[in-house]
UniProtKB/TrEMBL annotation:
It comes from the Bacteria. One of its GO terms (molecular function) is zinc ion binding. This is Xylose isomerase. The keyword Isomerase applies. InterPro entries: AP_endonuc_F2_Zn_BS, Xyl_isomerase-like_sf, Xyl_isomerase-like_TIM-brl. Keywords: Isomerase. It comes from Amycolatopsis lurida NRRL 2430. Pfam families: AP_endonuc_2. Residues 49-226 form the Xylose isomerase-like TIM barrel domain.
Length: 356
């Protein structure tokens, strides 16, 4: 099943979410000519808590989804709230997995997804942050986070819900290799696995085929794939003006450079010009629309996404996650953009179609 992630929409109450689904998801489904459309819901912590505490509210929300032909297979529980504030940056990584608020939010999402899950779903997935931003992080934090995952697994209680940890550049679990090393032998693999974000994977300059091989050889499953593309800059010195329009103030845009056989790091795009030598290609953590490439000298990493999709084991959930439409230069019509991305994904990533 392929879904689009609703964290692109700013609503942080149930009425607002329903209004956004009416305004965007319904016309996207109609434009695609699909009987059902998958939506990867983002619920802020207060919304998740309210729904978790009110079975009647969950039933009414499910009815609103069904009335619009929308199916839920996955939730994005990475952002806790305020994902469309004027400045988000490092706040998106809080609360960390050492904080009881993160545990409570995730358990609320488990309880909500259990009632919203599509009838044909073999399981439901919930993606989450890779523990925290990389610093500070201690051995005590490791122990606290391990226990926190255990609490969530106990709360799942045998229901067909799986947690998907999403490695991201700059975090404690920066790469897929970091995530495999931390998760293996530490969590119950029946209920906790990997969310493979292909933008993040591309930014790390990891080889996608080798990454899939390493995952297959581990005891960690791919629970969810976030189908996304990063900005690629072959010659940074020739692209400064083109990149300037992507250095916006809301989200963090980590940059990695591959030069001299080493991956060099900058925590945000404005810092890259001073922190990186500019001798090799850059990849920028800026989720780009899948169906269109920016003008030269910029490009995107959809080749990484294609390689991952071609080699995926099993049938993990696929979620198109371009949350950056509101900060994209010349973004255009959002309904048209989401529909075009999903059509591209249907043609390039799966054969059974959007509503399968």
């Amino acid at each position: 099943m392929i879904s689009y992630c609703t964290n692109v929409h700013p609503a942080e109450d149930v009425d607002g979410i329903v209004a956004q689904l009416e305004r965007y998801a319904l016309p996207v489904r109609e434009r695609l000519g699909a009987d059902r459309l998958g939506v990867g819901l983002w619920l802020s912590a207060p919304v998740a808590r309210g729904l978790a505490e009110d079975a009647g509210a969950r039933k009414r929300f499910r009815a609103e989804l069904d009335a619009r032909g929308l199916s839920v297979y996955t939730l994005n529980a990475f952002p806790y709230g305020g994902f469309h504030d004027d400045v988000v940056k490092h706040a998106v990584y809080r609360p960390e997995w050492t904080n009881p608020d993160r545990v409570a939010y995730t358990i609320d999402c488990v309880n909500v997804l259990s009632d919203l899950l599509a009838e044909d779903a073999s399981y439901g997935s919930i993606s989450t942050l890779p523990l925290a931003w990389r610093e500070p992080w201690t051995e005590q934090d490791d122990r606290r986070a391990t226990e926190a995952f255990g609490q969530v697994v106990r709360a799942i209680g045998g229901r067909p819900i799986k947690l998907a940890v999403e490695p991201e550049p700059g975090c404690v679990l920066d790469t897929v290799a970091d995530a495999l090393g931390w998760l293996s032998g530490r969590v119950d693999p029946e209920y906790v696995g990997l969310c493979l974000d292909t933008c993040h994977l591309a930014v790390s300059f990891a080889d996608p085929a080798e990454t899939l091989k390493a995952i297959a050889e581990s005891d960690v499953d791919i629970v969810k794939v976030q189908a996304s593309a990063a900005l690629h800059v072959e010659k940074p010195a020739e692209a400064r003006e083109a990149l300037a329009v992507f250095a916006e103030p809301r989200y963090l845009h980590q940059v990695r450079e591959f030069s001299g056989g080493v991956v060099r790091k900058a925590d945000d795009l404005p810092e890259a010009w001073t922190d990186l030598p500019g001798e090799g290609p850059w990849r920028v953590h800026f989720h780009m629309p899948l169906h269109q490439a920016p003008a030269a000298p910029l490009s995107t990493t959809t080749d990484v996404l294609r390689t991952v999709a071609a080699g995926l084991p099993g049938e993990p959930h696929i979620e198109v996650e371009t949350y950056t439409w509101s900060v994209l230069p010349d973004a255009g019509d959002l309904v048209g953009g989401i529909a075009a991305e999903l059509a591209w994904a249907q043609a390039n990533l799966v054969t059974e179609g959007v509503s399968a």
